[in-house]
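Record 1 of the preview.
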Amino acid sequence: MTITTTTHLNFRGTARQALEFYQSVFGGEVTIATYGDFGMPAGVPGADKVVFGQIASPSGIRLMAYDIPGTDEADAAATAGSTRRENGATITDRTFFQSLQAESLDELARYWTRLAEGAEVVEPLAASAWSAGFGMLTDRFGVTWVADVQAG
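->
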């Protein structure tokens, strides 16, 4: 028996845009179902929002997403906490980071460059004591990514 875990991201009205962005970064297929697809009457605020969304890429990236009911793009700036580097330490009040690991710095840098579009870079991608490449950023949708090259 195989068990997998997939990050399920919760957005305030921007799940569709986030999934499309992640598809542009990682490739793969996006699946989206709206509240309207599951019976919410057309014309009701939120019927066009994502109740189930997923991206699955050939490289193994899988993310799920949905729009929190009763929220919209105007609430999108409200993210779950903040992250910064201070005196060599990561200071955060977020409950999780999304980890992205690659086998090589070249592979990681390709993803990093795309994720960094519109992002706040917390720690630039560079060699570190434990990895050929390590970086941290909070993307335009408020998700903090920790990226590194797998130790060999």
